[in-house]
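ok so for the tutorial part 2 we go from a plain amino acid sequence to predicted structure tokens. step 1 is just haveing the sequence, like this:
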Amino acid sequence: MAFFSLEHSKAAYLTDFILYGIAVTCLLIFLTLSTPLRKLAEVVIFVLVGLFASTFIEYFLHRFILHGLQPFKRWHALHHARPSALIGTPTILSLTLIVILVFTPAILLGNLLRACALTLGLTGGYLFYTITHHATHHWKANHSWLKERKIWHARHHHVDARPVCFGVSTGFWDEVFCSNGRK
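step 2 — the prediction. this is what the tokens look like for a chain of 183 residues:
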């Protein structure tokens, strides 16, 4: 059951980066080649909605599912106990959820361009999250933005009382919902 393991080999761990990088590239190429000029603004809006939604989904899942709902809470505690271990959501699970919960409803309620644009935004946001999360645990911060994200995420991992700073790629939702650790 390697496909469903929480702790990954290096190859399995890299699958998210490769698979979602390919998916984002393919969706971008498809939309670039198939979007009529008159539909360009609509497609861009759907991509932006997907990107924005991805930040909320990231925050919501991390705060309320990974820190609040068993068995996910127990599984996520493994990451907190060993933050540099290659522990994460199995790619087969994240891919299945994106297809079932994003692409399929979007295509049933809209059309192929809208579904691909929304999926591009959400998948691009997920890829950005995975890279950012990996960077906060494994990269040296040579850029001020990454330094800020590393500090933010370290606050999440090292708070003794209630957990704070659930956003990884952005602190926006932590500011909105007052989970930034500031009184």
